[in-house]
Each structure stands twice: as C-alpha cells, then as structure tokens.
UniProtKB/TrEMBL annotation:
Prephenate/arogenate dehydrogenase domain: residues covered: 1-268
Lineage: Bacteria, Bacillati, Actinomycetota, Actinomycetes, Kitasatosporales
Catalytic activity reported: prephenate + NAD(+) = 3-(4-hydroxyphenyl)pyruvate + CO2 + NADH
UniProt xrefs under InterPro entries: 6-PGluconate_DH-like_C_sf, ACT-like_dom_sf, ACT_dom, NAD(P)-bd_dom_sf, PDH_C, PDH_N, Preph/Arog_dehydrog, Prephen_DH
Superkingdom assignment: Bacteria
GO biological process: tyrosine biosynthetic process
E.C. designation(s): 1.3.1.12
Protein name as it appears in the record: Prephenate dehydrogenase
Family of the protein in this entry: Belongs to the prephenate/arogenate dehydrogenase family.
Domain ACT per the UniProt entry, residue ranges: 273-340
Organism: Streptomyces candidus
Keyword set, alphabetical order: Amino-acid biosynthesis, Aromatic amino acid biosynthesis, NAD, Oxidoreductase, Signal, Tyrosine biosynthesis
Length: 340
C-alpha cells in the first residue's frame, strides 16, 4: 500500500504464498540484497534465522520483531555475528491468532514500536527501521533490550498468563455456568486463545521479570482472599475491614487502568464489512479471495465465525467503504450468499 516491494519467505511455503495472495508482497526471491530484512519467526528461531540471512548477505540491514529482546541479541552475539547491521525491534501490536489469515494491514497504526539500538548500531539501519515504522504509521520508542524485557513482563507477559489462568477456570466448569459468559469474561480471556508454543518460547526468554510481577500479584490475590473471607464473618467490624480491602484493590485497579494510554495515532480506517456465508468445504476461502481479486478489491482484514453445531460459517471481509458495493456485486454474481 505504501509502494514498497516486499519479498516474503517462510519455511512453510504455503504460508508465504497465502500472505502473497492476500496482498502482503511477492513470494518470489529478490534478485539481489534488499534494503531491510524483517525476521518475524518464533523467538527461539530468531538468532539462527538472522545469522543465516546475514551469512547469505540477504540485506543491508536486519531487524527482528520478536516479543523479547535480550535473549535473541545475546544468542546472535554467541553465534559470532556482526551486530552492527542488526537492530532488535518489537511492535506492541498483535493478535491471539497466528498465521497469514490473521493479518491485517492497519495492525500497527498508532501503536508503540520499540527499537533497541546500541552504540555499535549502524545509523543507516536505524534510519531504515524508523522509515518502516513510519510507513506502518506506528510510534517509535527507543529502549535498551533488558529494560524492554522488564517492561513487557508487566504490560504483556503477565497479562497473557493471567488471562490464561482465568480462562483455565472454565475448563472443568459446569455447562450452565459457561452458557452465561458475557462480555466481561470475553474481554479478560481473549488472549487466552494464543498459541501456547509461541508463549512458552516468549516466557522462557523472560522468566525472572515475569516471576517478579506475578509474585506481587500473588500477594494481592492472597489479601483479596482474606478480605472475602472476612466478608463472610458474623463480626460486623471484620466485615467492614473486608469490604475496605476489596474496595482498595478495585480503586487501585481504576488508577492503574487510567494510566493505560490510548492509541497515539489516528484511529484505524473504518472499514465496511461484507459478510459471506460459506459451507465447511475445502477451498472456499481461496475462492472468495480470488473472486475479490477479480473485483479489483483489496481485503484489509478477515474474520471467520463458525456457527455452533453447523457445517457453515460467516466470512467477514473488511474493505474500504468505497469498494464494498463492487465487492458485494461481484460476489453475488459469482454465486455467493451475502449477509450485510
Ligand atoms: N502475534 C503477536 O501478537 C505478536 C506481536 C508482536 C511480536 N510478535 C512476534 O512476532 C514473531 C512471529 O509471531 P507471529 O504471531 O507472527 O507468528 P506466526 O506463527 O503467525 O508466524 C511465524 C512464522 O514463522 C515461520 N517460521 C518458523 N520457524 C521458521 C524458520 N526457522 N525459518 C523461517 N520461517 C519460520 C512459521 O512457519 C510462521 O509462518 C514472534 O517472534 C513473536 O514473538 C508477535
Ligand atoms: O492483543 C493481542 O492479541 C496481542 O497478542 C498483543 C501483544 C500484547 O501483549 O500487547 C502480545 C504479544 C506481543 O509481543 C505484542 C503484542
């Protein structure tokens, strides 16, 4: 969308070709070295993938986007690589789903994107990374790698574990309780759907800082349990103490929540949704994408809703409002049923 040629490579070629079909770039290899190589593989593979790319002279500059920064840098150093053309980065935006079908063009808009240059980093690579961040309309934040890892222990890694632990309460819960799930639990547990293998890698690269935050949380949990037990007491003074304890934790939560910044940049473009009914058969998604391509319409985001207990689903295609009518008309002409 910003006129940059993007070459995609993945050790699973189907993933690269799906991303290319969605408009992310080309899965053909570049003819020579590119400006910037962006390594977006699971954290445990980052250093080896970077070292391999550097050995092959794939680019002038190299960055990675892994969720942890200290470990990959130290591994790269241990592999004997020249660290000058490398800068570790981390965009603070993502989804609980992985793979190219979960991608969206505006994911990074207005989000912080951390850069961890050192004194030895090549200025030209730093500028290339800044240019990429600007093109994605994210907000650059410079930090040192270990400071970054301590910060994300608090704002990303602990929330992931807490969300998973709350969701894990539902594993054995009675069906009558589960049926009552409303928006509150949906908000708290969205990221509990994340890929466990990816998160084991992230947490394995940042165990100390996450354990420190969790032990503070454990102390709060213990006090909250005591306060709730006091609320069950027959003694009026104990009950009052319990209510004060609970109010204290809720008020501290209000104060903490107020510190969560809004998006820095403009809100992402408002897309129009064209919803297409599909049956659970192989190749349906590929046909819809091909038909959208035929209409000359760019798909900005995709969501798939499976109907419970039925072999059918709803594919929500997010497109620029000006393209929605063209897309809808083409899809109907090609035999699809729409829900708008
Ligand atoms: N998902 C998020 O929310 C999020 C946000 C910010 C940063 N990150 C970081 O981005 C990176 C990728 O995460 P993702 O969510 O995009 O995962 P993903 O599973 O969608 O993508 C990872 C891709 O790497 C490929 N891969 C694995 N090993 C490889 C190798 N050795 N060589 C080449 N390709 C290889 C996989 O086939 C896969 O397509 C991770 O380091 C993660 O920490 C993720
Ligand atoms: O919102 C989500 O689903 C995320 O995966 C986001 C999130 C986060 O914690 O903010 C998760 C891990 C990444 O390293 C960066 C972003």
């Amino acid at each position: 969308a910003r006129g940059v040629t993007v070459h995609l490579a993945d050790h699973d070629p189907d993933r690269a070709s799906t991303a290319a079909a969605l408009g992310a770039g080309t899965d053909e290899a570049p003819a020579g070295p590119v400006d910037l190589a962006v390594v977006a593989v699971p954290p445990a593979h980052v250093a080896r993938t970077l070292a391999d790319a550097m050995r092959r002279g794939l680019a002038r500059g190299y960055i990675d986007v892994a969720s942890v920064k200290g470990g990959p840098r130290r591994e790269l150093e241990a592999l004997g690589c020249d660290l000058a053309p490398y800068i570790g980065t981390h965009p603070m935006a993502g989804k609980e789903k992985s793979g190219p079908l979960a991608a969206s063009a505006d994911l990074f808009e207005g989000r912080p994107w951390v850069l961890t240059p050192t004194r030895d980093s090549d200025t030209e690579v730093f500028n290339l990374a800044l240019e990429l961040i600007a093109l994605c309309r994210a907000v650059p934040v410079v930090m040192d790698a270990d400071g970054h890892d301590r910060a994300v222990a608090l704002v990303s890694h602990t929330p992931q574990l807490v969300s998973s632990m709350v969701a894990a309460r539902l594993e054995e819960a009675d069906e009558t309780a589960v049926r009552l799930c409303g928006q509150g639990i949906r908000d708290v547990t969205r990221i509990a759907a994340s890929d466990p293998r990816m998160w084991v890698e992230i947490l394995s690269a940042n165990p100390g800082p996450v354990a420190d935050v969790l032990s503070g949380l454990a102390a709060d949990l213990e006090e909250t349990v005591q306060a709730l037990r006091a609320l069950q007491s027959g003694d009026e003074a104990k009950r009052r103490g319990g209510a004060d304890g609970i109010e204290d934790v809720l008020r501290r939560g209000n104060t903490g929540r107020e510190r969560v910044p809004g998006k820095h940049g403009s809100a992402p473009a408002a897309y129009e949704v064209v919803a297409v009914l599909i049956s659970d058969q192989p190749g349906q998604l590929a046909r819809i994408f091909a038909d959208a391509g035929h209409a000359g319409v760019n798909i900005e985001d995709v969501r798939i809703e499976h109907a419970t207990g039925q072999q059918a689903g709803l594919v929500q295609l997010m497109v620029e409002p000006a393209s929605a009518d063209t897309l809808a008309r083409t899809l109907v002409e090609r035999g699809w049923s729409l829900r708008r």
